[in-house]
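Page header: ASSEMBLY MODEL / two components / 541 residues total.
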Amino acid sequence: VNGTFEIQLETLRHKFRERAATQSDALERLLSDFEGDSIRTETQKEIQQIAHSLAGAGGTFGFLGISARAAALEDLVSEIFELPALASACQSLISEIRRAPLRGND
Amino acid sequence: MIDVQHRTVPSIPSSGTSVQPVIHGDRPAISIFAAPERQEALAETLLAIGYQAVSQCLQANVNHAEPLRSFSAAVVDDSVDNPLEWVALNSVECPVILVTSELSTQSRLAAARAGVSAIIPKPLDVSELAEWLNDLVGPHRETPLSILIIDDDEILAQTYASTLENAGMRVVVETNPSAVLRQMTALYPDLILMDVQMPGIDGVELARIIRQSRLHLALPIVFLSAERDLARQLEARTWGGDDFIIKPIDPGRLVSLVRMRADRAITLRSMMDRDSLTGLLNHGRFIERLYQELERCRRIDVEMSLVLIDLDHFKSINDSYGHPSGDQVLRTLARTLSVGLRRIDIIGRYGGEEFGVLLLDTPAKAAFAVADKIRQRFSAVEFSAKTNKFFVTFSAGIAGSRGHVTPEALISSADDQMYLAKAEGRNRIVGEQNG
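Prediction written out in full:
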């Protein structure tokens, strides 16, 4: 039974890793949406949702670095922020996701 | 060697299409070792509290006994020769309970060294034996905890589900928050594990909606959240969240927190609904169920029976042997009823020495046969108080739901039959069909 459980967890962890890659691509697209010193409310909301999802799920699968950076981004985007700071927080999360190994416990 | 195993109860003649009550379930087998004159009483007692007993004799040759491995436990009475010598050789095979009057520290130590799991002083208190067996053999009706997970993130929800299922729980995942209320009525979960931030509806709002139903007031709701805002957490608690787990979630912590919360809620709920001495439904809850079930009988046109049971001469038991003995009698009857009836039947402590039973989907005639088997079985249980041994009986009245439109009329009829049983000389059942 324990073996099956381990396999189930590994499958779910893999699914999370795939979804995180998709989310990181989406973040990158959103970054290119930034125009001058303003950001659309829609874009802001999407960033917030992605960050919230990654902050919660990342750590559960052992990706503590992803969780920490996503949490910082979520906090930032939920309040008054400077656009360059937001862009850099996004970028930091994107590279953390790209760097994260396929297996957790980084 | 007396083999009590074969004393199965004859099946009740079927009448119509209704489901017939079954007296025997899968009873754990207990091996008993006692002097011949003690065997019968001990076997009857075990039968009454839900076990099947096989008497074995160990005087002549230990090897003649059936291997203990096939038994859930052994009860050894100190009326046999050198009980501890035998226990020392066999206690690895199954848990051993020693019934003895040797209660000094020295004898207890010797018993412990021989591998005795529990010592019950003589005279034997039936409920103490029942409680020990329950501890050692485990409850026979253990059902896994039922957990409902509400999280819009399917990968996370599945992860929690796998973790809890791996710990033996039954889990249903719902990723659509608006479908939750439908799940609630189908599922009766023991605990809800819920994400706080979901699209469309927020977990705190959902908790408020769930709490609007009286049925779910005591249901524990544990929030899972990436929420780091303490004010939000406090708000969630105010509106009915019992606990808060911050993501990321450690699987071990998740399992132990869910189990602890759910167990505590089950205990609390049972304390609210149940009589503390017997563990049966209390008067209020029993009447509530009677109303519900009678309504169900009308709706789907089935018949049920109400049995009202009253112990015979209960006051004199209390007067002659003291209240602890009276309590022992009440607990033993409660247990005899619980093991003798089906899971779906409803048993309540109706009053001081009065018990009520609802036999669902059972006409009064079939109910009579069931009640009479229980009457016979209970009257065979030997009670002891100090040096006295005594037996107790009960009288019961039965009324079927077909003849009575209101709950009051059903109760009053069963009550009338019960008084008739008392008037006719007690230790008997009177039903409308034969009364």
